[in-house]
Each structure stands twice: as C-alpha cells, then as structure tokens.
Amino acid sequence: MQVTLPAIAFGGSAGEYPVPVAGDGWDRWFRAVALGGSGHYAAASTELRRIATTSTDVVLRSLAASTRAAHLRQGGQHLHAVHHDAHALALLATPVAGFDSATTAGPRVSAWCDALTGLAADDLGRGMFGAAARLLDRVDALLIDSHERIEGSSEWVWHGRPALRSLWVRAELAMYTGDPETAQEHSSAALAVARGCPSQRHLIKSELIAAAAAASAGETTRAIEGAQRVGDAAAFAGQLPLWWASAMLLEALGAGGSPSAADLRHELAARGGAMR
Fold this sequence. Notes:
Distance between the termini: 39 Å
CATH architecture of the largest domain: Alpha Horseshoe
Order of helices and strands: HHHHHHHHHHHHH
Helix content: over 70%
Largest sheet: none
Radius of gyration: 18 Å
Mean pLDDT: 93
Low-confidence stretches: 97-103
Structural class: mainly alpha
Number of strands: 0
Number of domains: 3
CATH topology of the largest domain: Serine Threonine Protein Phosphatase 5, Tetratricopeptide repeat
Shape: globular
C-alpha cells in the first residue's frame, strides 16, 4: 500500500523516503513539510517556491510561507524567518474573490496559528519575550474559538498540531526567561498531546522540548536520558534536524557521542540546511 504525503508529513510514516511526487498544490505543501522533517531543505524550498509562484489559494500560500520560516528558524536564522512569517500573516488579510471560508475553516485557522506562532518563535530568537507571549495568547484564543468548527479526520493537522506548537514555544519562552518550572509544565502538556497524536515527528520534537526543559531545571541525568532517546528515535525515523538538535543538547550537557553534532550539521548542509 502506498504511503500518502499527509501520513509522511503529519502521521506515522515520517521515515518514508523517497517522498512521493506531489500531484497538486496541497500535496506540494505536505511534501515540503515531509522533506523538511528529514532535513532535505533545498528540495522542500523548491516545493514551497512553486506554491508561492503558482497557487492562487492564499491560505495555502500562507502555510507555505510559515513552513519556509520554520525551516530557516530550525537553523537559527530567526531574522530571515520573521520576514516569511510576516508575509504568511499578511496573506491572510488579502481579499480573494470567491473564497469560501466556511469550507476551509480548518486550514485557515491553522494558517493564522502557524503564522502567529512562528512570529512568537522568531521573537524568542530576538529577545522580544513580551511580544512572543502576546502572540501566543492570540493563538490560544483562536484555537478556543475555532474548536467546534474543526472536526473530522484532519482535526489533528488543523487544530491539534497548532495547539502543540503553541505549547512548544511557551515552554521555550519559559526557558528563555529563566522559569524552568513553567517550562516543564508546558513541555509535559505538550508530551501529553503528542502521545495521543498520529505524528512520529511531533512526538520526537515534544520529547526534545521535555529534555531541554529538564536541563533548564538542572535535572541533568533526566535531560541526558531524554536527549539520547530523542536521538535514537530521530535517527530511526530519518528526522535529521531533530537528531542534530539532540546531539547539540547532549554536547551541551557534556554527554556528546557519535555521530557528533558537527557531523550531522555537515550532512544537513549537504541537503541545503544552514545550521548555526
């Protein structure tokens, strides 16, 4: 049975490679997400550019812009990412003749949340912590307001996933501002959500956030054990960016191994990633 693009991007088939060819604009977005998850940033960027230049669907174009920003941010390029996140938000204010928001409530809400959460994460990288908190409050309000309008098999992609991303950034915000207790609260909440979701990648990322939160609280042994589990899971699932991030955390905790973070960074560079 052929594995679908949504299953690779947001489901239990994250390690599937090569990623199937896209058939339409939405498939291009799923394909770009899947490619980015495995660290094939150059190939992902090609798909996202095609959406930007050929699609008339502003919701899809907004999601593509947010995805490009996320890939840049994974490499520490927050200043570049913010331009794409801002563009993603601006697109959603664009009036489009014939656009029926009732038929796309889930994608539209998700696009708003992705853009706002992305901007909040960009603000963390620029030391704008108050602005980040306010943006996350807007995300949570959107999710509460839209919950009853987003139902069905895609609820995870359009509602659960944005809620999880908000928890990640809230945990990171707490770590940035020296509040390890709150960081652990949000990371634990994220893990609870991720353990009930279909996505391998989102569970691994949630475990990475939890390991980082443990490190921020001085729980070094727990952090090392968590980061090692993340590295093993990411390697098995072919999620190179998360494998690299876990190696970075382990080295910061004095528990680096093989391959090193530098080795993984080199492989990501070969795939089009500029990791800092």
